[in-house]
Amino acid sequence: QVQLVESGGGLVRPGGSLRLSCTASGSIFSIYEMAWDRQAPGKQRELVARIAASGYTTYADAVKGRFTIFKGNAKNTVYLEMNSLKPEDTAVYYCNGVINRDEYWGQGTQVTVSS
Question: What mean pLDDT value characterizes the chain?
Fold first, then answer.
């Protein structure tokens, strides 16, 4: 079984920064891609950023130039660096990954951007 555990959420003022981390553990043979999604109250879950095993990245238009997804030195860890945060970035952020040809999700971490 594979588990994804997120951390790093919290309360930040507009214009501030946060870094989220996601670590995959368990019986991992191959990680095809990792991604961050978010879901704001009353809205559908949406893709924020994705990183393929090759390192190729994609971003939602709303976060381009402000967010960066990258792999950490720690094994099976991916980060989401979020800068210039806006109130509309407030949401529960979920890590997900295509691992061993199955899709797994973390439990989510709350990010609140407010003055």
Answer: 95
